[in-house]
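Q: Could you fold this chain for me?
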Amino acid sequence: MIAIYDHLIAILVGGVIILLLFNVQRRTQQSNVERTMMYMAKTSTLEMGSFLERDLMNAGFNTPPVENGVLEHNTNGDGITDTLVFWGVGSAGTRTRIAYGVTPVDTANIAGQQTPLYQLRRYERQGADYVEVGGSPPILTEFKITLLTSGNLSTDIYTADKLRVKMAHAVLPDFEDEEHLVGYRQLYWGVTLDPPGLQ
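A: Sure. Below is the predicted structure, expressed as structure tokens.
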């Protein structure tokens, strides 16, 4: 009888140890996945920011002083810049009209609130039509381009000398455990640009 109890206790202790090791392994794996997701989100945000910076530094490319470098700028009721059209450098390296269009695509739970997710699309004018040539993943929670004077005051397309860009990306969800979604996080990126073509 004592031998049976010894075996049962050994089985229970062994089972508990195996469950503890399995739980430690699962949490370590989950932590590594979250760290990788955050790294990829940061990389994506920085790549998008770098692309926007290069593209918008060419705003007003080869524009004579009597013309506007920025042709159209519109911000919707949520503060999102949904349209921006400017003279820039196209894929062929020549002066062309570049258009940014931002459209809502979905919503996500961020800090307990349903937040719209947007996608940025980049168009180049080729002939009489605009052709889509790039864009962002559909994870933007904020995209705002403010037109500024040389003194950093908000202005319109006729007197814009600088562009202030601010965007935020939703980061894939955090999990408290496999069943409980904590919610999305956001990564912010911003810059104020002084394109030579807008001077």
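A (continued): Helices lie at 2-57.
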